[in-house]
Amino acid sequence: MKKLILSLALFCTATNFFAQNADPAQLVNEGKAALEAKNYQEAFTKFSTYLTQTNNQDSVIAYNCGVCADKIKKPTEALKYFDIAVQKKYNLANAYIGKAGALKDLKKNNEYVATLKEGLEANPGNKTLTKMYATYYVNQGILAQRAKKNSEAEEAFKQAIAIQPENVNALNSLGSLYYSQGANTLKTDADKAKVEFKEAKGYLEKLIPLLSANKPAQKKMMDNAKTMLNFIESQLK
To answer: Could you identify which of 29, 57, 79, 210 might form a hypothetical disulfide with 102, taking C-beta atoms 3.0 to 4.6 angstroms apart as the criterion?
Structure first.
C-alpha cells in the first residue's frame, strides 16, 4: 500500500511539473479550443495554468478564465480572474459584471454593492450594471417591507429609483407602499391619508406608461396600479 501511495504521489508531482512547464502558447491554444467547444473545465485548467506561468499578466485570458470559472461554478476563482481583468481595464464593464456576480455567489453583500457602484462610475450608463445595482436596492426594500420596516423599505426603493428612474419594480413598490399606508391612515387621519395617497399617485402614474399589456406579469401590475389609482382619485376629490 505504501508503494502504491508513493507511486501516486510521484505521478501527481510529475503531472504538476509538466503542467507548470507546458508551452504557454500551446496552453492558450488548447484553452481556446476547449472554450469554443464549451468544455469549460478543460479551458479553465489550461488558462489558469498559463496565467500561473505568466504571473497573471494576460488580461484577455484572465477574463476568459473568469468566464470559465463562473460556468463551472467556482466563484472564488471567478472573482480572482475577473478582478485581474478589472485591474487591467480589459472588457471593463463585463469584467465588473462578472466580478459582481462572483461576489453575489459568495454572499459578500457589501463588496457586491461596492463593486456595482465602482463599476458604474467606471462605465456610466451601462444598462446591466445599472439594473443589477437598482435591483439590489429593490430586493433590500422588499426584505425591509416584509420585516415591517416601512421607513427602510421606502429609502431602499427610492435609492433604486435614483439609480434607475424607470425601474418598474421600484415604482410599483413605492406606489403600493404609500397606497397601503394611506389606506391604513384613512381610518384615523383623513388629511394625512391624502398626503400619502398623493405620493402613491405620483409613482403609479409614472409606472403605468412603462408597462406593456402584452406581457402577463406587467399587465397584472398595470391592472393593480389602475385599481389603486381609481381609489386614490375617489379620496382626493
So the answer is: 79
Q: Secondary structure of 41-98 in the HEC alphabet?
A: HHHHHHHHHHHHHCCCCCHHHHHHHHHHHHHCCCHHHHHHHHHHHHHCCCCHHHHHHH
pLDDT at 237: 84
Distances (CA, A) of 74 to 69, 95, 116, 148, 233: 5, 16, 20, 36, 53
CB 103 within 8 A of CB 111: yes
pTM of the model: 0.85
| Residue 5: other Cβ atoms inside 10 A | 9
> Which amino acid is located at 89 in the chain?
K
| Mean pLDDT value across residues 5-21 | 39
- pLDDT exceeds cutoff 70 at 32: yes
Q: Which residues lie below 8 Å from residue 60, measured CB to CB, with a gap of 6+?
A: 90
- The DSSP secondary-structure symbol of 106 reads T
Q: Contact, 104 vs 88, CB < 8 A?
A: no
Q: Which residue has the cell 426594500?
A: 141
**Within its chain, how far is the Cα of 186 from the centroid?**
39
Reported as a single tens digit per residue, the pLDDT across 66-111 is 999 999 999 999 999 999 999 999 999 999 999 999 999 999 999 9
Q: Give me the sign of the Cα torsion angle 226, 228, 230, 233.
A: negative
